[in-house]
Amino acid sequence: MKAERRKLPIGIQTFREIREEGCYYADKTSHIRQLTREGKHFFLSRPRRFGKSLLLDTVKELFEGSEELFRELAIHGDWDWGQRHPAVRLSFGRGDFTSPDYVHETVTRQIAAAERRAELTGDPEASAPERFAELIEGLRGQSGERVVVLVDECDKPILDALGQPEVARANRDFLRGLYSVVKDCDAHVRFALLAGVSKFSKVNLFSGLNNLIDITLDPEHATICGYTEADLDTVFAPEMAGLDRGEVREWYNGYSWRGERVYNPFDVLLLCRRREFGAWWFETGTPTFLVDMLTRRGINAFELDGLEADERLLSSFDVEEIAIEALLFQTGYLTIEESAFLAGETQYRLGYPNREVRQSLNKALLRHLAGGGENRALRGRGSTSTFSPMTGQGSKRCSAPCSRASRRTGTGATTSPGSRAATPASSTPPWRRWAWT
């Protein structure tokens, strides 16, 4: 029997709407079930438009007991629907975070709105962290159940303000105090999930929440966001008719977080709608200042495919210092190709995830050079660029270079059968021959 075509959930981040409108949905509830059994406080980093907001909304509906939305999903028969938990969700997905104090204002407004919905009375004179704590305690007292805390785009107030370091630091310090409330209210919290693009150092952003479990590179949760091959074979089977699966894979698959590779969900949905291949994800946030940063540092397109980094370097992301490897990986322009455990730490080789990113970024670099970027690079070696991974925009600022790239060398390019990206050829192996794990 031929599968029925459904509505494509393009731009829909609300789990209830997707389920009630009969949209395609790739079931991620088995991951949520596992998280609720593994621990309590979690952090997840994924690139923009990878489904983080939908994941958080799914968690919210689950704990609030919306059983009708989960019928026929993996978690339905393995969840206590009689027990409901109140949920608090903060989102930093919109707003001008380059404006001083805006982050404080939006948090205060969101907490006030949550108080009104729960018919709780907050203290308008209290600080935002104090009011956040009172909200969590109030919800616990009102319902008798522990509270679920969800934070969407938890790092965006910092990322958007990187061009104004003073504002970015102020936003970071404010968020550090806000997030520490989750730990302080631990007795009232059932589950917490913070999601963002970057892996800011726990010392700098999450020092007050040092019991946070980072699942970004957990192989068991590598597919918690994005679409798998099985998703395309089953969920999206009606849309795959007439499409060359090998070409779909070459264009949009390849993202790896130390587990099964996944497709870019935004690209897959746009492909299903338009029935043609294009750089849909890349074009939603052209990385102008990232390209400028790469050209000024003399990094060419081939050198990106094979950057080496350790786990510490991939997490080196803060206002004062952003390693180019961390920036490219966390924003989705590079992915993990291989990993090895050496000398007591995990080492990674990074590469382009697929044709879309490789081809689009290469073209962007060529256009930049053709437009005079090379001359600007020669004049600007004493400064660095900041880049907002949320919008693809940024600005220049003077500081010491922060790149610690270890790059492959060689000339020419070779592509092995089935590979996703061209790699430099060299008489000496460009990548150390490690015993891969």
Helix content: 25-40%
Largest pleated sheet: 5 strands, parallel
Shape: globular
How much of the sequence lies in strands comes to 5-15%
How far apart the termini lie comes to 42 Å
What's the total count of β strands?
12
Radius of gyration: 22 Å
Which structural class fits the helix and strand makeup? alpha/beta
Write the H/E string, N to C: HHEHEHHEHHEEHHHHHHHEHHEEHEEEE
Treating each run of at least 4 consecutive H or I residues as one helix, how many helices?
A: 17
Tell me the strand order in the biggest sheet: 2-3-4-1-5
Nearest-integer average pLDDT:
84
The low-confidence parts are 373-437
What does this structure look like?
The structure is a single chain. The strands form four sheets. The protein has a five-stranded parallel β-sheet with strand order 2-3-4-1-5. The chain is built from 17 helices and twelve strands. It is globular, with a radius of gyration of 22 Å. The C terminus is likely disordered. The protein is an alpha/beta fold and 437 residues long. The longest helix has 25 residues. Helix 4 packs parallel to helix 5, helix 5 runs parallel beside helix 7 and helix 13 packs across helix 17. The two termini are 42 Å apart.
